Amino acid sequence: MTTLRFSNDPADIDIEVVHRWLSEQSYWAAGRSREAHERAMAASRNYAVLADEAAPGDPAKGERVASDPAPGDPAAGERVAGDSAPGDPAPGDPATGERIVGYARVITDEVTFAWLADVFVDPGSRGLGVGKLLVAGIVAELEPLGLKRIALRTSDAHGLYAQFGFAPLGGTPDEGMWMQRTPAPA
Hints:
The protein has 186 residues and is an alpha+beta fold. The protein is built from 4 helices and 7 strands.
């Protein structure tokens, strides 16, 4: 079983992995330069979800899981150790046994407003609760600030954000829906 951990520690964020995800696999930051990512991250609160590498059947350790094609199966392809493709697990940290599987950043004045941006879950880790842990952790981190609103714009995962009090403001899922979270009335 994979163990997930939420983190706001900059040391846990692998800029190389985050840059690859956002510039190559996201629809909103495709082609963004590494320098632009670094500048954006430096001006933001950064968050990550990490997964341990010790889970049985972990593809990052070369172990097969039930859904993997068997060796020799034509669906297995010709990939060898060291090959990577979009959706492959992020490289892990051998010292901790963890790898980054989710990332998001927040831009805020820390008084009235925050913008949730660049939320991304590693394709191989979707469906494991990474997004829920990431959004829950961010909301918990921001709540003590007493912000009037947290806003975002997305073309997907509307149901995920709704679970944490985000409501639609306008737009459509195809063009990007604006959502915001406001504190509950006292």
